[in-house]
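Troubleshooting: if your tokenizer reports a length mismatch, compare your output against this known-good record of 461 residues.
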Amino acid sequence: MSDGPSADARPTARRISLNGWGRTAPTFADVVRPTDRDAVATALGQRTSRGVIARGLGRSYGDPAQNGGGTVLDMTGLDRILDVDLERGLVTCEAGVSLDRLIELFVPFGYFVPVTPGTRQVTVGGAIGADVHGKNHHADGSFCNHVLSFDLLTADGTVRTVTPETDADLFWATAGGMGLTGLILSATIRMTPIETSLASVDTDRTKNLDEAMALMAETDEKYTYTVAWLDCLAKGADLGRCVLTCGEFASLDELSPKQRRDPLRFRSGSLLTVPDVVPGRLPNKFTMGLFNELWYRKAPKHKVGQLQSITGFFHPLDLVQEWNRVYGRTGFLQYQFVVPFGREDGLVKAVETISAHGAPSSLTVLKRFGPGNAGFLSFPKPGWTLTLDFPTNTPGLSRLLRQLDEIVLTNEGRFYLAKDSRMDPADLARMYPRLEQFREVRAKVDPDGVFVSDQARRLGL
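Known-good structure output:
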């Protein structure tokens, strides 16, 4: 399968303002959208003195895909499927192909992406650069565990085919390396076979965080996909109450006769688009408290075998285009951390701190991570990960986040670079013990620091 070649060898730069999905800290850059490898190489050679960074669909929450005063390469123009092996479930595609497109193309053939975050609107290059994870990390690891190879355009203009066997250091520096080792041009990925496009989902409503953690620990071996929505405003005996959803792709036997006529049917699309006129104070302690109560109460106490679509189970937010506009022009900050197993008291303390502060998080998600991989800056490690969305105008937010930082660091945790917009660079080495190995590989492959982002400057990556 191939969409055919493209022919734009000398793309034009446009000076525009860029920000992350959180809509904070915009900076101006010369944005170039190449549509083939030659155009990428040309753009790399024509970069400004401020260097260059790749950008996909802009779903990093902070500034890793920004380069103030420099060049940003919009890689969505490299969007071709290059090779398919349906017998082995292998797909080779360009870096700008989205997970949405892979799902749309290959679900009808009985394959799903091996790992997906909460949105399909992520490019393959971005998924590698952030080493994204999903509901199945405890079972299948993160995205780069399923990448067989990628072609990387390095700072000297050469293209290297990188595999974990032939060039392990460069592969694992690029996996989660936030685009700082070079430009990913294409990749070969092992897809996951499925019988149907529906998930069979079990739901449990837990009374509090302790009950949720106990139930999640029990279900690790039973389910491939597990996630819990958490009420971060609940207090007392209800602290950290959750709605836990666990699932597997349904088998043909689980479908009704009507559903079996087209068991691999997949339809993407959205229901609405949020206009860019929403008041910035709409998500607040009162509105989110009401929403959390309704969301918790509407969930069944216990339900087994509910069939849900791919979008309904994996990507419910994709039903609403531009949902980040709900926070208004002031935007929001996503805060994600992991603390290791055995440090559950740290997780509980973090939830207690957020609840006591009354900080409204419109979406709070709890998951369990399995073993991490060899990525020097890959985020997941065995433990509990909590993700929160805070409006930037939350009263006392800076003080709250400093408190949470200390809890996470005291409990040997770390923050996710793809979500970061405010990390203290002095904390990096404490969280990522292989940071110096990453820096050594980066210095070797890019001695002049050609690949750089606002985040890289801010953190001294």
